[in-house]
Amino acid sequence: MNLTTRSERLTGRIFLIALVVVTLLPFLSMLSAALQPRGTVPTGLAWPTDPQWGNFADAFTAANMGALLKSSALIVAGVVPVGVLIATMAGFGLGHLRVPGGHLAFGLLLLGLTLPFETVVTPLYYQMRDLGLLNTRWAIVLPLIGLYMPFAVFWMRAHFINVPRELSEAARVDGSNTWQLFWRVHVPLARPAIASLTILLFLWTWNQFLLAIVLVDDATKRTMAGALGAFQGQWGTDLVLLCAGSLLILTPTLIVFLIFQRQFIKALLQGSVKG
Amino acid sequence: MTSALGSAPAGSDTASRPGRGDTRSPARPHRKRWGRTVRWTGWIWVLPALIMYGVFVLRPLVLTVQYSLYHWNGIGAARWAGLDNYLTVFTDRDLLKIISNAFILIIFFSFIPVLLGLLVASLVRRITTGPAGTMVRTVLFLPQVIPLVAAGIAWSWVFSTNGLVNQALRAVGLDGITRAWLGEFDTALPAVGVIGTWVMLGLCTILLITGMSKIDPSLYEAARIDGAGPVREFFAVTLPSLRQEIGICLTVTIIAALASFDIVYISTSGGPGIQTTVPGLEIYRLAFSQRQVGLASALAVVLMALVLVCVLPIQRLTRGEK
Question: What global pTM score does this model have?
């Protein structure tokens, strides 16, 4: 470390600060537009002389935020707990119990790891139509659980494969069955891996756009990202309201992110294999 | 952290199964029989995940391949098409342009973020764990946390006639080149690309700095003693040590570029003309507006194959030996 010259470190720092500024500018520009009086034409970044905080209240009603929050929360509640549970179980079966033929199942799952959602969205539409689930939240929840399995199982298996088998041998001697073994010994040990997976699945679900716009017409039954797309379609010409509404729709994610900032960054760094 | 993932690559699992032998130990026949039953019943643990995957991924995937062999408007009877749809994908000028658009986006989504990230990482070496470092990390991760739709809306505004970019250009007297960046023929695709750069840059930078801080400082000492300048040091020490991190960055960003949808849908809807249309968007349009389900499915299969063709060699190159 001491070997880096002062000028190098200074240049690095300047680059880093520039990066931070560039990352923040679009948000600031949106905020500056959101605070202008309705009906005016805002410019890129302008100090609001008379900030119209009321625009956010208007956007809250226009976007039907209450319903959107409820819908996204319901979808997350449907996807994340079930997804995490069955992925943990499968990771346990493939990584720790080493079921015979498990590598075949794992290979099949790996096939889906780089699969673009666009590849399956058309048949999913017809499948959901035949099941009578189009325009219900189930049409988003069920496929998402399946689509997350390749990454989620890969992730949990990577944890369980490193757990020493002696641990289970010892518990077996105590006479506990596999079910008890799983809940009492392995789930507590896997807590960090489970926590990261939960965060990633939450984020991916909340931000899912393609499935939401294809499978659900009603914006109040979509995910946050899908609702934001509809909001832009409806208010695209009213820039002030669009910026206010977009910022508002972002707020819940930002609050959760800032609270669990450390865990999020850890999870995103570890999980970036999938992206 | 990333090395934990790297240590479990897809191909090496048969090699790393030290525990497998003890269930077959001849000294313990009881254990053997009991162990085998347990191992078969273990499938109960795997089945729920496999069923969900099979019903909502594998089945649609097989159907996509099947659709791609038919002419079908989604309602009436399907007509056998053989490989006609694939032939169209590879000969139709518009479709070829759409596919090449996705490859141009790779420059912006992958190459620029990785190169800039490498530059910053090799200069910064590490981010402090103090509050300033936490602040930098948090801000750089914002684009990863917000939906891409939001990034699209924000940048549509930044690139618009009255937006931030033109405002900045006017401020430095470059009024002549101001324009609606996302609306004009020549600038639309690069402008969409810049949105991708903005989304990916922070993630790549942090990943590379994290990798950077794991490099043994004595390697740099040795290089300096040998009289290596910053440039040679970069090629001799930094680049080889970061191979794995670079591989992860490239994999993630190339998939994001080839399979891009959200950003394009929101910021340009593929226009002007088909200037910014990408395969993901075209699949959506063909299947749900043009009612050409067969062609859409053929394009979908091609897209999936393109992703694999681009990503697998990177995995092989950067994860090979360890």
Answer: 0.87
